[in-house]
Write a structure and sequence with these properties.
It is built from three helices and nine strands; from the N terminus they run E-E-E-E-E-E-E-H-E-E-H-H. By secondary structure, the chain is α+β, with helices and mostly antiparallel strands. The protein folds into two domains: 130 residues, no CATH class; 31 residues. The strands form two sheets. Strands 2, 3, 4, 5, 6, 7 and 8 form a seven-stranded mixed sheet that branches. A two-stranded antiparallel ribbon has the order 1-9. The structure holds zinc ion (2 copies). Pfam families: YceD.
């Protein structure tokens, strides 16, 4: 809960504050999220307006999860912006004209001040969850796991299998070499891949 008492209700009044709050339970997705109780660093600006308090801010959150390619644990710093209006409850009172109730969708999502307090948790939750990477990777060019045995390739750059695979690979090289007589196919492995960025999550 955040307190607006010091802000006052005079429209135009401003107050900034920084606070660290513990993360609520279940903040995240299956692959990445914030551990319960981890520290969320919240910086916000409260602005008193006619109908309530406009809250604008940022939240930093320590994320932990696992790389979708190599399944190694990873940690990232999450960062999200938010803006939310907390209305004074009395603006929704009997004095309200029927014409103002037209916007049903807006009404459903409306958040209200509870006395001088407002509950930022649902706002932080939405902001953090929306900012989470859908396909977190430990490194942009994480090579993932060996498709044959599941060994993480990043830690085993020279990883290869026994003769059975070598023979197949040699046959492939021979084949590739015969297709391109201008150079031995084996050297292609040393070259950087032509694609610059590793944006494609399917990239092997
Ligand atoms: Zn990885
Ligand atoms: Zn392997």
């Amino acid at each position: 809960m955040f307190d607006t008492r010091e802000l006052g209700r005079r429209p135009g009044a401003l107050k900034r504050l920084s606070r660290t709050v513990p993360a609520p339970d279940d903040l995240g997705t299956e692959v990445i999220g914030v551990r319960k109780g981890a520290e969320l660093e919240v910086e916000l600006r409260m602005e008193s307006v006619m109908e309530g308090v406009l809250v604008t801010g940022t939240v930093r959150a320590p994320l932990s999860g696992e790389c979708v390619r190599c399944l190694e644990p990873l940690t990232l710093e999450g960062f999200a912006d938010f803006q939310e209006m907390f209305s004074y409850p009395d603006t929704d009172g009997p004095a309200r004209r029927p014409a103002e109730t037209g916007d049903e969708e807006g009404d459903e999502e409306r958040l209200f001040l509870q006395g001088d307090l407002f509950d930022l948790e649902p706002v932080l939750r939405d902001a953090v969850v929306l900012s989470l990477p859908l396909q977190p990777v430990c490194e942009e060019d994480c090579p993932g796991l060996c498709p044959d045995c599941g060994v993480p390739l990043a830690q085993n750059p020279d990883h290869q299998h026994g003769e059975a695979v070598d023979i197949r690979w040699a046959a492939l090289q021979e084949f590739a070499g015969s297709m391109r007589p201008d150079g031995p196919a084996g050297q292609d492995k040393q070259d950087k891949p032509p694609r610059g960025s590793g944006d494609d999550p399917q990239e092997k």
